[in-house]
Structures are given as C-alpha cells and as structure tokens.
Amino acid sequence: MKAFGQSYIAGNTKIGNHHDSTLTANSKLSAFTDQVIKKLPVQPWLGSNGWVMSPAKSASGKVLLANDTHIGYQQPAVWYEAHLEYPGFALYGNYLAGFPFPLVGHTRNVAWGLTMFENDDMNLYREKEDPNNKEYYIYKGNKEKYTTRTEVIAIKDKPDSVITIRESIHGPIVNDVLKQLDSTAHEPVALWWAYTKFPGTALQVTYHLAHSKNATDARKAASMVNAPGLNIMFGDAYGNIAWWAAAKLPVYPAGMNTKLILDGTEGIDDILGYYDFDQNPMSENPPEGYVYSANNQPDTIAGILYPGYYAPHDRALRITELLKVRNKWSVSDMKSITADVTSMTHPGNAAIILNALSNDPVLTQSAEHKRSAFMLKTWTGNHQLNDIAPTIYYKLISHIFESSMIDELGDEDYNTFVNTHLMKNSYTIFLQDDNGPWWDDIRTKDIKETRRDIFLYKRTRVQSTN
Asked: Which of 89, 110, 159, 299 makes the best surface tag, with the fewest CB within 10 Å?
C-alpha cells in the first residue's frame, strides 16, 4: 500500500471503502497561516463526527443518522435552525448565517450531514525566473510570461490596499504578498489550489441535497463538490446509507510528496488529471451496517492512500468500537455516542511514559508522585468533568513535546506545530522512539539528553549555546 509523503501512520484506523452498484509548505508560510486563522473574525471548521446506521442495526428498522459539525462558538451564532413547509415539500436543517440552504438537514425522504474531508488540495511550486527579464519564468525549457492582474482591497477607515498579482501556470506567486514565506528563498513560489480551478458549487450542492428524493439524487449532488473536500453522510427512507468523500481529487505522479515545495520548472510535479468521482473514497450500504467519519484517513484510491491533513484516529477508533457492540440502536443510544468522552489511545501513550520510567524513584519519591502515577496507570481514557488523570496526562505531554522540540524549531514554529493535527498524530510513534533525534537539546554543550531525561522533565543545568 503506497502513501503520498508518508502522511499515514501505520495501524491508524481508516474509513473503509465499499461501492454498492445497487443503490437506490514551508514553515514560515505555516506560521503565517496560523496567525491568520487566529485573527479571523469567524470561527474555523475544527472537524466533525458523523455516522449512519442501516435498518439492520436500528431498533426501529429505519435508518438513523447522527452528525456533529465542529465549529467554534461565536456571537452572532454559527448555526441557525429552520423548518420549512409548503405543499409537497418539508425541510428541517441547520444553516450558516447568510447561506440559503442547510448544510445539515433532513426531509421526509433523505437526511444528510457533513464533516471536513481534510484532503490536501493545495500545492506550492518553486518557479525559476528568467534572469534577464523578471516578467518571464522558465517552464519546460521555455520562457513563459507571467499573467498579471491588479486587485483593490478596501479597508475600513484606511486607504485602499492595491496589489498586483503575478501568476504562473501553477497559480499566483505568493512571495509578493506573503513576505514571511521564506526569507532565504529568492525564487518565486506559486500556489496551486483546487478551489480556484473549478467553479464554486456550494449553493448547487446544498440545494440538490435538500431536494434529493433518494440516494441516487444525493450521490449526484455529492459528485458536484469541487472544494473544499467534504465527507457527506447520508441516509434515506428506503434503507440506504452512504458516506461519500466529495472533492475534485487530482492524480499525482508516483512518489510525489505534496507536503513539500514542488519543482515548478520541469513539469515533473504537475498533476496528471483528476479522478472520476466513482474512484473517490466512499462506502455505500456496507456489510457492517454503518458508515462514519471523524476527519480521519480514508482507505485507498487506486491502491494509494490519498494525501491530506487528517485528524488523529482516536475518535474514529472509539466510534467504530461503540458501533460494533450493539445491533439494535435507538435514538437515545446514538446520543450516547455523541456524548462519549473516552479516548482509546491516550491511556496507551501514558503507559509508554510509565513503562520507560518503571524503575525510576521519581514515581515513588512523594505521595503526590505515587498518586499521579497510579492515576495514569489505571486511567481508562475517560474525560469526565472531575477526572484528574487527563489533566496530568496532557500537562505531561505538553512538557515532553516542548522540551524535545523547541530547541530545534524555535518558539514560532513550535507554536504553529502544536496547533496542528500533525502533533496529535505523532504522539504514539514519537513517545515510543527511544533513539529519536529530538530528545537531545541541541543548545547544551557536552550533554546529550535522553528520552528518560525528557520524560523526567530534567532541565539542563549548564549554559546554553544559544
């Protein structure tokens, strides 16, 4: 099984595919992007959960659908509920402010929900300018002229900002406006984004979902999604259930790592086309009797794990564990999954730390240390309001990662890193690696810190080299 850019952690839970023919960048850019997100006047989509049970697993013999779209709280409110009725039509749904059709909803025939696909739909390409004329760049041995356009950005109580945008065959040159991209990169860097390659279809998709009569109609609506990528959870009154990973997914050359800045000069990293929607990850009326999504890695497309910035698999692991244990689900049972606060992965990570320190006197040097170690050892992963073990665990994890990585990354890049799925996805593999290069503090002289030192939170007592 191949994976683009090693984006998949071996052993993590993947959303399984099942087709049913009988249906009715760069660290500076990362830091800048992180700053932009923090200053947005609206909350970003943080991830979501969704699952659908078939009639065979439902106590009522009807499809059950649960969906929880994770958008941070804000005022004015993110979601608005509306129930529309007129002769021949009934629609209940949750709307984003200013959007005319519900993103999540149901009629008398169908129900649907959304989670973010988290697929990688952006690439950065390093271009090569013509040394004799900055209006041109080199592509496949030929001189190509940048296309240019001027945009005026109106700013409240300030003069307009006027910017000139240059575009190569790959997309707009971002160095011109994002000086933080990389102070050491003198070559232009172009941004390729699937969102700009196709017409926006959000209105059409949500309209057609709301007016679908059955699974065939809804599947057609899902196939219209270009970007951003969405997981569409679906169920209908005829017993069909489905999950579609909906997006225009480009076909990449073999072995290409979409997480790096790519070569824009020779064309060797250019996309080769787009997959047909039939090849997208999806599951329709699977034999398990349920479909789900928790923003985690979907299974393969044409034998390849599609690149993305997927969420850790802990929610997916817990959801699938719960869905397997019961055959006749009620609405209240479904609510219990939504309200579940148990992690199946974090107790294992705590055990890695405790095992590494199993013979160390620090675990018994005081009553407080003994109690903390016992809480972590006996922790089942629950996160109830008054549970103490999670507080100890997350504080410990925070110190371990900071002590390990801030010397290599620096404050800005480290703060960007800890706000990504990348950090959470790396917990287990990072803690297990006793010989990892991150454990040593490169700022200290003549001392090589070990994993045990970092787990013990032993700060060096010698002069830093920086």
From this structure: 159
Q: What is the pLDDT of residue 444?
A: 87
Looking at the DSSP bridge assignments, the partners of residue 382 are: 342
Has domain 122-194 been given CATH number 2.30.120.10?
yes
pLDDT at residue 41, as a whole number: 54
- Counting as low any pLDDT under 70, the low residues of the chain are 1-47, 179-185, 458-466
CB atoms within 10 A of CB 340: 16
Q: Given this model, what pLDDT does residue 372 score?
A: 94
What is the C-alpha separation between 380 and 85, in angstroms, rounded?
47
The topology (CATH level 3) of 2-120+197-327 is Glutamine Phosphoribosylpyrophosphate, subunit 1, domain 1 (3.60.20)
Residues composing the chain: 466
Per-residue 3-state assignment (H helix, E strand, C coil) for 67-98: EEEEECCCCCCCEEEEEEEECCEEEEEEEECC
And the tokens for 67?
A: 């969906």
Residues of the chain with CATH 3.60.20.10: 2-120+197-327
What is the identity of the amino acid at 161?
A: S
Q: Residue 120: phi, psi to the nearest 5?
A: -85, 110
pLDDT value, residue 120: 93
Cα 227 to its chain centre, rounded Å, is 14
